[in-house]
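Lecture 7, part B: from sequences to assemblies.

Below are the input chains for today's worked example.
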Amino acid sequence: MLSPGEASAVWLTIELAAVTTLCLLVLGTPIAWWLAHSRSLLRRPIAALVALPLILPPTVLGFYLLLLLGPNGAIGRAMLRIGMSTLPFTFPGLVVASTLYSLPFVVQPLHTAFEGVGARPLEVAATLGAGPWDRFFTVALPLARPGFVTGAMLGFAHTVGEFGVVLMIGGNIPGKTRVLSVALYDHVEALEYSDAHRLAAGLLLFSFLVLLGLYSFRVKASPV
Amino acid sequence: MRAISWLLAGFAFLSFSASARAAETQVAVAANFAGPMQVLAEKFAKKTGHHAVIVSGATGKLSAQIQNGAPFEVFLSADMTTPQKLEEQGLAVRGSRFTYARGRLVLYGPRPDLGQNGEATLKAGEFAHLAIANPKLAPYGAAALSVLVKLGLKAALEPKLVIGENISQTMQFVESGNAELGFVALSQVQVPGKPQSGSFWLVPSSLYDPIRQDAALLLHGEHNQAARALLDYLKTDEAKAVIVSYGYELEQKPKTNAPSAKH
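Predicted structure of the full complex, as structure tokens:
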């Protein structure tokens, strides 16, 4: 049903979304924890910074990343100096861009979940002799589980649905950076509507199922 | 609240009075010609008072938009087949097509030695990324691919290809330094008044089919005098001088199916 090119776009998209979700959880958890517990003056500016991709046009992020990560940009130059290649037009480049772009979709559910856990359970655990890491992993994490599920699903789905940033820094390379949304755009522009329909319908169904799963999960999780 | 409504009324009046004085025309322009078209539109406005609104993109993309009812009135394509197809579909006015420019493909990059070593550089393959425009949508992208095929380098260089949505994005990939080389239009590299950076290899015309860029009057513009005036203006010596200054060549002999020029 799918051409080899489209099948590779599907796999690439799943791979990108999976790796990105992993990065988002690893990066998002400490940020959300800090936002939930810090009394620092920097808390609000950092929260605003993390939330920026919610309202920022993807083209803004794509533009800055292209310049910063390119060989003439600060980050790109530094990477070349330590013997690495630059990120635009590569899979790791897409992971970096997607992680930034989907950050609020993971940090905000986690932030809410950590706040919901509150100080009480942690204090109780502390009086029972649990150290800070122990308290985090055995008390806070299990209690914040709904936040992790929501964040991971939203992060994954949002990365699948990403388009603008990928178009700007991906370079549309088959098998490397041509993800589903870009492949679909290509089909539409070339008037290959039957191919476009296949991909579009698949993405529509996928997005619906993710949200359906999310809502079903929330109903199950919330009465606790 | 009251002040805002007065302001809105003022704007509405201004835009109405402007449109009453001079006609406006919506022009779809292949990305390679966007630069010169900007200059031409200014000169055209000075001469005729008409205003040309420019939308640029890949030829294939613009054509898809036209087929889906985009309100463009004039189409400046980067090839001859697309306007021809639009005419066959009844979307372009019969007999309005003519060649406004012949484009040249160049291999461009920031390095200084491409002029002499363009082909050798491609063959050596010592670069990470070579940018081309999407061959499905952009005639310059199709030409670039044909060059790689003719040089026997397609298989070797395919993994290094970075594909721009149109020739402007392709140029931007190179200008931002993210791709070391790119096949772009000569008109993007040889911009009058802009200092040249890097170097380019003028690809021999034996390596790709001629890029004959045709213009057409679209159905939406059939009764718009500004649209017709713009097409006529493109045939004037003033317009031709601008077109040539961007490195385009002009069509030598007049086409048989071109309408007789009225000047």
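Note for the exam: Chain B is about 40% helix and 20% strand. Keep this in mind when comparing with the next example.
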